[in-house]
Write a structure and sequence with these properties.
The structure holds 2 protein chains of 2 kinds. Chain A is an alpha/beta fold. Chain A is built from 6 helices and 8 strands, in the order αβββαβαβαβαββα. The longest helix of chain A has 16 residues, at about 80-95. Helix content of chain B is about 40%, strand content about 15%. In chain B, helix 18 (about 485-505) crosses helix 19. Residues about 1-35 of chain B have low confidence and may be disordered.
Chain lengths: ~190, ~575
């Protein structure tokens, strides 16, 4: 077996990719979503919105309006369509009052998602006033993810998470791919609808 | 599909069984002649699948979990099942293939041909088994979300109300997805080529070729070893599935003469030797004819070494390292925009050489500066052979009183800046391109170093040297100094991404899928680039630049003056 060593090594080299996916996939995403209530410290960072305007995150999230936050990115697959369809539907239900509820999406791919791309994404989902999509430096985005206990080392570790701010400043954390109707029910419970 | 010859008895019979099943299935597929979709059906199907638009022109409606319909123009099949139809994996969420060939086979708890591959991309391990679909049960799934085992898949997969005619078009399109192996792929070989523009510096060409050839040879030596030794064969199969026995080849396609004639040369090369994909490639100038050729023939090209990539939001087939020279101009605009305190109503002065590089940088700067709402800007163009003098620089500074001078030229203009630092009304900073200066970057006069800021779209050299060992490995003992550092590092990346992608493809060697799997890769930390990242549809691996200054002393290093600036 000894003289096979070079080949084994060669194999391992070629297969190095196998070791870089430590997360165990699929199945882990809960079939029904998980709901918990948490306290988070929002970091004082300045992010940039879809119009290229600077936005102080703390001000946006603690404006007193009902607020929901999710983490997405413009080119993401299954997770984002489902989360964003939830936002689209909520805004549709709100009708002309859409701006009364502040919906925030924060990109986890700041490298790609510049304001132009954020704007196009929102247009694609027929977003109305009240839904903002934010980007920033990687450092600031990392801080925000950490603050929500939602740090993704990589955008491919992305998890479906939505946060709804309760009246007392606590956050309802929803983990899982939620159907639109479940989304609605949660928003109603939190007083967003 | 070469299977390892000696496997334990029970495994062998299992394999035999699966081969038999495959044979029976494919025989069945041949027996029932599949109606070839007309071009029009194909086009309409593609429009539904990729754009979410019905043949009538109306948006397709997705009923997301029994709720209000969402227009298919927000997202549609392609958003989740991807362009190849072979599905996606993101974090914990798996979207299975939706191409006819796989739908019309029963799903086993593993991917045939990758039974033992522990890979993340072995999606079938994480989904329940199901029998083969038929046209009727497939239509039912799309309409109601109920699969042939009566399981509801509605949680993430929307429901679609398609009329009978539209459904037939959709199903015919799904059958055409990733169906026939593309040119360049046979059951025991995958062919690649690399395009070299004649007249390119030979050191640059070698630097591009060496790491690619290494990747190819490494793969082939595994196949050779597997042929000679069944233990290696078995191990290879367990780890790489079908891929372990495949051989790769890399041809060199040299383009001669004027770019206008390249198209015909490419056609001729491709006619003689169809390849699955182009790897690397190199040109010091034009690349567009190769880009267009790949787009039209649907041939992937992974990372040509070029300064002027074709920039497009929609082109699909060529992946570039970056947006090229232009990206530095864009990053410079973004960086300056963040220094509002500098301006106070004063303009930025852009002085640029009328060379391709100078103009490309200037265009990148100008367009970004306008798009982000930068303030006043004046521009001066230096004709190709005009020498920039100190006198001219000072005159411009006195006239325009710029807050910042953006200078796009090679080292020739540096001497004209001498004495500038001592001027009272000098601009707050001078911003230039580190790559345009080339090696002269290391010889910027001491007195200028405090004033001169440079775009530098790579990891800083002193931090990148830790990757030397990786790069040396692919050069197989040849000294690093024989190669051009930037190019050999870029090409190293090409070899790695391509190897990784082929593994992730788990036997499905389809061109669109090659790009789909690269789009699903995690961000990578490779030589040269701080972060190489893709997402579905993203076409530029590295998207920003640092702003640096040259430190002082006779052996200076680059010092970072910014975070990674994303234009």
């Amino acid at each position: 077996m000894k003289h096979h060593l070079p080949w084994l090594i060669c194999l391992l080299l070629f297969a190095s990719v196998l070791t870089i996916c430590p997360v165990s996939p699929a199945v882990a995403a809960p079939v029904t979503y998980k709901r918990t209530v948490e306290k988070y410290q929002i970091p004082d960072v300045i992010l940039t919105n879809q119009f290229g305007k600077k936005v102080r995150l703390k001000t946006l999230l603690e404006s007193g309006r009902p607020v929901a936050v999710d983490f997405i990115y413009a080119t993401c697959t299954t997770i984002c369509p489902v989360l964003s369809a939830g936002y689209t539907n909520l805004q549709r239900k709100l009708g002309p009052d859409s701006a009364k509820v502040q919906l925030v999406s924060i990109t986890i791919d700041p490298e790609n998602d510049n304001p132009r791309i954020l704007k196009e994404y929102l247009q694609r989902y027929q977003a109305r006033p009240g839904w903002d999509f934010l980007t920033g430096s990687r450092k600031d985005i990392d801080r925000v993810m950490h603050a929500f206990d939602a740090y993704f080392r990589d955008k491919m570790d992305h998890k479906p998470l939505t946060f709804i701010r309760g009246a007392d400043g606590s956050w309802i954390r929803l983990y899982g791919l939620i159907s639109s109707s479940e989304f609605m029910a949660e928003y109603k419970k939190a007083g967003l609808l | 599909m070469t299977l390892p010859m000696k496997v334990p008895a029970e495994r062998a019979s299992l394999l035999l069984l699966s081969i038999l099943i495959c044979v029976v299935l494919s025989a069945a597929a041949w027996a029932a002649p599949v109606a070839v979709p007309s071009d029009e059906t194909q086009r309409l199907g593609e429009q539904m699948y990729r754009k979410g638009i019905l043949p009538s022109g109306a948006p397709i409606k997705a009923y997301v979990s029994g709720d209000v319909p969402v227009d298919g123009t927000s997202f549609t099949c392609v958003s989740c099942h991807l362009r190849s139809g072979l599905g996606s994996i993101e974090g914990e969420v798996i979207t299975p293939p939706t191409n006819g060939r796989i739908l019309y086979q029963p799903r086993k708890p593993f991917i045939p041909g990758s039974e033992f591959v522990p890979s993340y991309s072995n999606y079938a391990k994480y989904l329940p088994v199901r029998p083969a679909y038929t046209d009727d049960s497939l239509a039912a799934l799309i309409l109601t979300g109920i699969d042939p085992t009566s399981r509801s898949v509605l949680k993430v997969m929307p429901r679609y109300d398609l009329g009978e005619k539209d459904m037939a078009i959709m199903i015919s399109y799904l059958k055409s997805l990733s169906d026939q192996p593309p040119p360049g792929v046979t059951k025991d070989e995958i062919r690649f080529a690399t395009v070299i523009v004649e007249g390119t510096d030979p050191v640059a060409v070698q630097s591009m070729l060496a790491p690619l050839q290494f990747s190819i040879d490494r793969k082939n030596s595994l196949s050779t070893a597997a042929e000679k030794n069944h233990r290696v064969a078995r191990m290879g199969y367990n780890m790489l599935g079908d891929l372990s026995a495949l051989r790769f080849s890399l041809s060199r396609w040299t383009l001669k003469g004027a770019p206008a004639t390249w198209r015909a040369q490419l056609e001729e090369y491709y006619r003689k030797e169809p390849v699955f994909a182009l790897l690397g490639g190199i040109s010091e100038g034009e690349w567009e004819p190769v880009h267009r050729f790949c787009e039209e023939k649907k041939i992937p090209n992974l990372f040509p070494v070029v300064d002027y990539p074709v920039l497009s939001d929609t082109d699909w087939y060529t992946l570039y390292f970056s947006r090229g020279v232009r990206q530095e101009g864009e990053a410079a605009a973004r960086y300056l925009y963040g220094m509002a305190e500098l301006f106070k109503g004063k303009p930025v002065l852009q002085l640029y050489r009328a060379s391709r590089k100078g103009q490309t940088l200037a265009t990148g700067f100008r367009e970004s500066w306008k798009a982000i709402g930068g303030g006043a800007m004046t521009e001066v163009r230096l004709s190709a052979n005009e020498k920039l003098t100190t006198k001219k620089v000072l005159k411009l500074i006195n006239q325009k009183k710029p807050a910042a001078l953006v200078l796009w030229d090679d080292a020739a203009s540096l001497s004209a800046l001498s004495g500038l630092a001592a001027q009272k009304n000098r601009p707050g900073l001078v911003l230039a391109s580190g790559t345009y200066l080339g090696k002269a970057l290391w010889a910027v006069p001491e007195e200028l170093r405090g004033l001169l800021y440079l775009t530098y779209p790579y990891r800083l050299p002193q931090e990148d040297s830790r990757f030397d060992v990786n790069v040396k490995r692919v050069l197989q003992g040849k000294p690093l100094e024989l190669y051009e550092q930037r190019i050999v590092r870029q090409s190293y990346l090409t070899g790695e991404v391509f190897g990784k992608a082929l593994m992730m493809m788990r036997g499905e060697y389809y061109r669109d899928y090659l790009h789909d799997v690269i789009g699903m890769m995690s961000d990578m930390h490779y030589p040269l680039y701080e972060r190489v990242s893709f997402g579905p549809g993203q076409r530029y691996a590295s998207k920003g630049s640092y702003i640096v200054q040259l430190g002082s002393g006779s052996n200076p290093v680059l010092e970072r003056r910014s975070e990674w600036v994303i234009p």
